[in-house]
Structure formats: structure tokens, C-alpha cells
Amino acid sequence: MGEQMLAPVRGYIHAPFFAEMNRRSFNEAVPWNDLLLDTVAELCARAVLAAADGRAPLPPGALFDLMCWEPEKLGRLTSAFQRLDHGIAQVPFIPVIGTSPGALTSLHRAFLWEGKHGSTVFTPQEVAAVGVTHLVDPKLHPTRLRRLAPLARAVGRGLAPPIERPAS
Question: pTM for this structure?
């Protein structure tokens, strides 16, 4: 496909899509293409669930890439999780700080603490050290962190902690 065709997921999808005559694009409404995209969504959902259950060790960046679909295509992934009896907002895939290494949280519970540039007191690490849990690990690549906010908004969740949470 041409460069103008963006995958719904952050990666390459190699599948026998039914392409347009110019071989640079395809129509998602074609039943075969629709089936392939739904299958990709289900594979992503299954991989993330397997990682959450400890059956498939995947690095945090890969989990992000499997979950952070383009917002206009996210319905496919949400439907895939529903078919597998899981809500997309409850699936742990976000690495957190202040807990055991490799700990993950879900969109439902995650908070993104964005300390001011150069701050030394209210850093995410210091906030986690006083017991605030489910803080997104700031060591994730900035591009991945930027993709998290639209995903959270798409499922009706904000990532800012409520005022009483950091104050407790």
C-alpha cells in the first residue's frame, strides 16, 4: 500500500487486503478487508490479555503499540475486547512507578503526573514514594505517552489525578 495508508495500530499489518486498482489504498467497507481488520484487532486484544495474565512477556512499549490505535479506528479494538469478555479500560497495559518492577495498570486506574520541567520536589517518583499508586511511568517514550491521552479520552477517562488523590 502507499504511504498514505496508515495502519490503525502502531505497526505494520501484513495481510492479503483487497486493494484499490492503484494498489495504494483499500476500502475498509469491503467485507474481506473488514474481516481482516477485525482479526487484527482481536489478535492485538489477545496479545495484551496474554501479557496481562503473564502468559506472554511483552515489553511495555509493545503493549502500548498494541493498545493505542488511531482514535477513529479504536471501535474495532474495543469490540474485540468485548467479544473476549473484557472492557478495554480495565485491561492492565500501562507501566507504573512506585510498585514492583514490571507492574501494570489500566486506563480505568492510571494517573499521569506531569511535574513541571525542572521540578525536584513534586516529581512523579516523589509522588509515588509517598504512596500514590497507579502513576504512569514517565520513562516511557514521549511519543507513546502522547498517544495515551487520546486513548483515555476515547474511553471516557481522563489521566489527571483528582485533586484529593495527590493531597492524601
Answer: 0.79
